[in-house]
C-alpha cells in the first residue's frame, strides 16, 4: 500500500509508523521437554532471565551524600553481542553452569524492524503528507483517489482490515464547538444590552459591530498568511465582547446628548466628534497590547499568534467601520 501511494505521486511524503523495513533477528524457541526436566526452571523464568541478560536489571535508587543515585546491573556488550555469545551464555545451576542453548533453539531470521499494538491487535499506520501550499479542502479528494487505487490494485487478505483515519476530526469538532460558543456569547451580549438600554432595537445596532469585527479577522489572517485555527477562533470569541464597547460608548453618549439638539444629524455629528478620541485611544491601547503576540515575538509565541492577529486586526477594522456605520444606522431610527 505504501509503494502504491508513492507511485500515485499525490502526496509529497509517505511513510509508515512503525517503519516496515526488514532487519536480521535472532529467534529463540523454547525446548519445553528439556525445561520440564529441570525443577528449578520454567519457561517463564528463563525468558525473564534472558530479558535481564539483554537489557539489564531494573534500576534501584539509594541516597548518598544527599544525592539520589540510580543503579542497574548490565552485562558488557562483548558478553552478549552476537548469536554465538548468547547461545553460550552460562546460567548457574546447582553449583555448576548450563549454556543458554541447552534450553533454547537459536535461529537467524529476517523480519520487520518493529510493530505496534492497539487493543491487542498488531497495527501499522500509513501517513501521507500533502505538498506544501496544497489547500486542506483537497484532502477528501486525494483520499478518494487513493481509495480507488487501492480497491483496483490491492486485495486485502482475510483477517486483515484497512481504515482511513481523519486526523483533523478532533480539530473540526473543536471548531464546531467554538462556533456554538461564539453564537452563545452574542446572545448573552444582546440580552445584557437589552436590559441596560431597556430596548430591543438599540442592542441590534450595537451588535452590528460584531460582523464588522469578523471582516477584520478574515482580512488580518489573510494579510499575515495565517489560518483559521482554534486560537484564532478563541480570539474571535474574545473580539465579540470587545468590539461592542465602542458602539456602547457612542450610543450611550448620543442618547444623553440627543434631547439638547433639534436635529438628529447634528446630535450624531457632535457625538461622533466628541467620542472619536476616546474610542480611538481605547482601540489603540488594546491593539498595541496584543501586537507582540500578533507579530510572534518570543520563543513559542507562534502557537498563540493567530489569537493576537484575530483580536488586533478585527478590533482595528471594526473600530474604523463603527465610527461611520453606527451613526448612519442611528440616523434611520427615531
UniProtKB/TrEMBL annotation:
<keyword id="KW-0812">Transmembrane</keyword>
<dbReference type="InterPro" id="IPR001036">
    <property type="entry name" value="Acrflvin-R"/>
</dbReference>
<feature type="transmembrane region" description="Helical">
    <location>
        <begin position="200"/>
        <end position="224"/>
    </location>
</feature>
<keyword id="KW-0472">Membrane</keyword>
<dbReference type="GO" id="GO:0005886">
    <property type="term" value="C:plasma membrane"/>
</dbReference>
<feature type="transmembrane region" description="Helical">
    <location>
        <begin position="276"/>
        <end position="297"/>
    </location>
</feature>
<protein>
    <recommendedName>
        <fullName>SSD domain-containing protein</fullName>
    </recommendedName>
</protein>
<feature type="transmembrane region" description="Helical">
    <location>
        <begin position="174"/>
        <end position="193"/>
    </location>
</feature>
<feature type="transmembrane region" description="Helical">
    <location>
        <begin position="309"/>
        <end position="333"/>
    </location>
</feature>
<keyword id="KW-1133">Transmembrane helix</keyword>
<feature type="transmembrane region" description="Helical">
    <location>
        <begin position="236"/>
        <end position="255"/>
    </location>
</feature>
<dbReference type="Pfam" id="PF00873">
    <property type="entry name" value="ACR_tran"/>
</dbReference>
<dbReference type="GO" id="GO:0042910">
    <property type="term" value="F:xenobiotic transmembrane transporter activity"/>
</dbReference>
<dbReference type="InterPro" id="IPR027463">
    <property type="entry name" value="AcrB_DN_DC_subdom"/>
</dbReference>
Amino acid at each position: 500500500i505504501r509503494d502504491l501511494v508513492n507511485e500515485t505521486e499525490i502526496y509529497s511524503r509517505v511513510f509508515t509508523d512503525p517503519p516496515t523495513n526488514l532487519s536480521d533477528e535472532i529467534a529463540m524457541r523454547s525446548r519445553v521437554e528439556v525445561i520440564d526436566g529441570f525443577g528449578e526452571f520454567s519457561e517463564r523464568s528463563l525468558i525473564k532471565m534472558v530479558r535481564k541478560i539483554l537489557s539489564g536489571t531494573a534500576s534501584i535508587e539509594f541516597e548518598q551524600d544527599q544525592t539520589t543515585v540510580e543503579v542497574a546491573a548490565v552485562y558488557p556488550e562483548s558478553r552478549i553481542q552476537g548469536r554465538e555469545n548468547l547461545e553460550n551464555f552460562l546460567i548457574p545451576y546447582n553449583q555448576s553452569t548450563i549454556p543458554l542453548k541447552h534450553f533454547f533453539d537459536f535461529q537467524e531470521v529476517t523480519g520487520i524492524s518493529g510493530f505496534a499494538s492497539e487493543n491487542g491487535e498488531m497495527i501499522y499506520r500509513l501517513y501521507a503528507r500533502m505538498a506544501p501550499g496544497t489547500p486542506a479542502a483537497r484532502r477528501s479528494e486525494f483520499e478518494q483517489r487513493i481509495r480507488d487505487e487501492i480497491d483496483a490494485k490491492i486485495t486485502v487478505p482475510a483477517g486483515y482490515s484497512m481504515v482511513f483515519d481523519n486526523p483533523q476530526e478532533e480539530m473540526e469538532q473543536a471548531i464546531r464547538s467554538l462556533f456554538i460558543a461564539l453564537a452563545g456569547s452574542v446572545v448573552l451580549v444582546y440580552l445584557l444590552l437589552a436590559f441596560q438600554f431597556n430596548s430591543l432595537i438599540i442592542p441590534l445596532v450595537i451588535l452590528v459591530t460584531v460582523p464588522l469585527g469578523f471582516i477584520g479577522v478574515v482580512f488580518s489572517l489573510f494579510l499575515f498568511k495565517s489560518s483559521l485555527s482554534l486560537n484564532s477562533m478563541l480570539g474571535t470569541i474574545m473580539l465579540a465582547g470587545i468590539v461592542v464597547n465602542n458602539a456602547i460608548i457612542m450610543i450611550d453618549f448620543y442618547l444623553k446628548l440627543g434631547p439638547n439638539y433639534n436635529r438628529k444629524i447634528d446630535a450624531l455629528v457632535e457625538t461622533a466628534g466628541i467620542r472619536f478620541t476616546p474610542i480611538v485611544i481605547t482601540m489603540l491601547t488594546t491593539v498595541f497590547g496584543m501586537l507582540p503576540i500578533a507579530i510572534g515575538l518570543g520563543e513559542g509565541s507562534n502557537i498563540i499568534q493567530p489569537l493576537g492577529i484575530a483580536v488586533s486586526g478585527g478590533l482595528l477594522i471594526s473600530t474604523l467601520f463603527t465610527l461611520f456605520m453606527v451613526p448612519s444606522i442611528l440616523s434611520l431610527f427615531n
